[in-house]
């Protein structure tokens, strides 16, 4: 299964991908996670993109496309993948189309009020990338990762000003991909407002 997860920041793409990868036995490839790993490891790519992520802007297409091209060549991606957060522009979608065919594009639909609630309450474990929400998916002990015991953090780009910018960037650059993939007959709309397990099962049903 070769899937793209499309939708605004905070719609729950990463949360559902972490479950769906077990259902389909395919890797979850998140470009945001790949960039954050590079930043954490202090690579040249990481140094280049750090300020861009903090502001909630998009990393240039060539840099992002090259990174995804390399990742899709890895052994585990040969049998399928969930691409989460890529493509985010028409140029990226065209480049992806030249790299591989897709089975479906899942469009996570959520209204703006819920998007802001989800982003502002998101907390993450920096070393594992595990995601929580202070109200909707709290850790067992407040502020602490359930498995590693590390302190949870709020991403710089989940603070108010960056959230506003990311929503504008989504509308301007990424939302046009909905029509792009609908025209190709690949798009599946999923109501992302339900609980994670309900979102997962409605997606699995829609993909049969
Ligand atoms: P979210 O899960 O909130 O949608 P991501 O983790 O997917 O956010 O992305 C975090 C940031 O990484 C983005 O705001 C952007 O700066 C960068 N990024 C991720 N994917 C892409 C992409 N496909 N093109 C350009 N920038 C990207
Ligand atoms: P995305 O990858 O689309 O940016 P995430 O999966 O990181 O979104 O989810 C954003 C926030 O919303 C996280 O704090 C997550 O715990 C929470 N969340 C995700 N899915 C749901 C859901 N179905 N209901 C309630 N909260 C959710």
**How confident overall, as mean pLDDT?**
97
Q: Give the radius of gyration.
A: 16 Å
- Strand content bin: 5-15%
Helix content: 40-55%
**What is the straight-line distance between the termini?**
11 Å
- Total number of β-strand segments? 7
Overall geometry comes to globular
How are helices and strands ordered from N to C?
EHEHHHEHEHEEHHEH
Query: Strands of the biggest beta sheet: in what spatial order?
Result: 2-3-1-4-7
Poorly predicted spans = none
Give the biggest sheet: 5 strands, parallel
Based on secondary structure, the structural category is alpha/beta
* Ligands and ions found: adenosine-5'-diphosphate
How would you briefly describe this protein structure?
Helix content is 49%, strand content 14%. The chain has helices at residues 13-24, 31-40, 44-55, 61-72, 90-99, 112-121, 160-174, 176-183, 196-207, and strands at 2-6, 28-30, 81-84, 104-109, 122-124, 131-133, 187-191.
